[in-house]
Amino acid sequence: MNFGYLIFVAAHPDIDYLKLAYALALSIKNTQKPGYDKVALVINDRSAVDALTSPWVFDKVIEWPEQKFWDGRSWMDKITPWEHTVCLDADMLFLRDYSHWINYFVENTEVYVVNRAYTFRGEVVTSDAYRRAFTKNDLPNLYSMWTFFKKDSGKEFFELARQIFINPQEFKNLYLNNHIPKVVGTDEAFALAAKLLDIDSEIAYPLDFPRVVHLKPQVQNWPWDAERVTDQVGFYLKGDGSLKIGNYQQTDIVHYVEKDIITDELVSMLEEIAWKKN
Amino acid sequence: MEEKLDLAPFDEWIKTLEVPEETYFFEFDLDGNVIALHPGPEVDHIKNKIQVDLDIALAIYEQGETLRHYKVDVTSSRVIKVNLASITGLTKIDDVLHRVVDKKWSKISKPDVSIEYNKADALLTFKINPLLKTIEWQGDQDMVFLITEYNDPNVLQEMISFNVNELVKYPQRINIDLPNKFSIYTRRLFDNYTFEYL
Questions:
Q1: Cα A98 to Cα A174: distance, rounded to the nearest angstrom
Q2: In terms of pTM, does the model score above 0.90?
């Protein structure tokens, strides 16, 4: 089976997205079975990858300077080198083997977009604190942070999502006028494309997996406002690659959101595990 | 008849204009407590004064710091920043359960509190920055250090506590046998702590 993960990064003045992608790739290598641990990186300047201590964690590096920041994700279907792909956000960590999830999607679906997120305590996120445009405009609750697709599948969906992404003003005025989002990102573009094509029940039907913990502060079901999750609870990655948030052991994929969580020390811990394993 | 003034042309005047340097001074009492911040031209009549960096003045004027955040060491004539929790408040998890960073991963060159562990002698040593020694700490300021499993404060191995005034008087040396990897967490009374494994 030709399966791999796909991560997009690009230069940013304040955030080292390559470092985040590197930590994610290390965590994939540390936890996934052979055959399920391939990672392709899309970056605007591939020379930066060579400066990493272990650039081998990226099985393929694709130089693609056409889009800035992570906006390139809207081109994931065109760029992927894999037959079966899961496109991830860079600011995530893998904590155990999730290859059985991949087997399900390879056998049963063409395209699947995560439509449920979890708090660090394992509760389903119900708050729409960051998703008013979704609830007010009756959009399916898609998260592009974990998107599975087979090569040459979902062409209409990806093409429409790209058009929405390229022409946000037109689509906002036509279809998102109950609550106009400031930015039409990949999440909004995917959700609107799925709604317009009436395929949300095909690409985002309810499943108990994949489980992704979304560490946005206002959706953690705390009875107070929070600016940062790490103001409220600690983030404790141990030498064996296991993670506790507060006193909750994490086993699902963690989308940590706060980029400064990935310190040099944390990267060195992940590297050490990878070196021992490989 | 209109009188013609003999003024230098503007371009020449602006070249010769000297803008005075922006300076600020703390006024302090005999114990070194800061009682006022004055702009430079207003301080001629003040007896106990010391010039402060522009950054400090701006931190007070624009960034919410107060005069209580600073003290003057009268003997050495130095301005010292005070970071006691009684002033800043403990509101974040990193304040109540602050992980002391290993020196090799830190950019902190002059920590307020430095901790060293000598494995051969099984000796854990706590030292305070000498610049902070001249301060008299008000009230009960217990320093509590949790020795835990590496990067996991949920697994407590040892707890060490002493008063900040004890640390000001002498470095605190504790004989304790610790594993090769552990972490230290503390209630954050100061801004910067570092740890070094010798």
A1: 39
A2: no
